[in-house]
Amino acid sequence: MTQMTPAEAQLHIRYTNWASNQLLDAVAALSAEDRERANGISHGSILGTLAHVMFADWIWYTRVVAPIDRPAETLEVLQRDWPDIQRRWEAWSDSLTDAALDRFVSFKRANGAESGAPVWQIVLHVVNHGTLHRGQVMGMLRQLGVAPPATDLIRYYLNFAAGKATA
Question: How many whole angstroms separate alpha carbon 79 and alpha carbon 25?
Fold first, then answer.
């Protein structure tokens, strides 16, 4: 039984894309040294952590929707290819049905173990995973003395209601 509606999936996929783009814009203003500085948090650096989020968006898309080429992990690729992956997620979500959200997807976990989940759980995971790692990047920005952008879910809801974000 579906635990989320197609409209909820669309809204939250768009939220995670909006939030990631807000943060990517802030990170682009940093020096390469600050973006790539090893800090012992998450995936080694700000760039490494954002590349990890993009990789997760990519791998889950390939598991749920269709295979696409794996992007590299540079700022230029994040700025060029991540929005393409995000647009693909959004286009896919625009045609969702309850049956599509209930579909079971089999996959191999990072440790090679066979696993699987219904699509609605994967969508929630993609959104939650992005939120976790964006929060880590925000902490790294604060350590550099940079105020991160506001990317809370309620901020998205308020922006969407005011017409400043797309659903």
Answer: 9
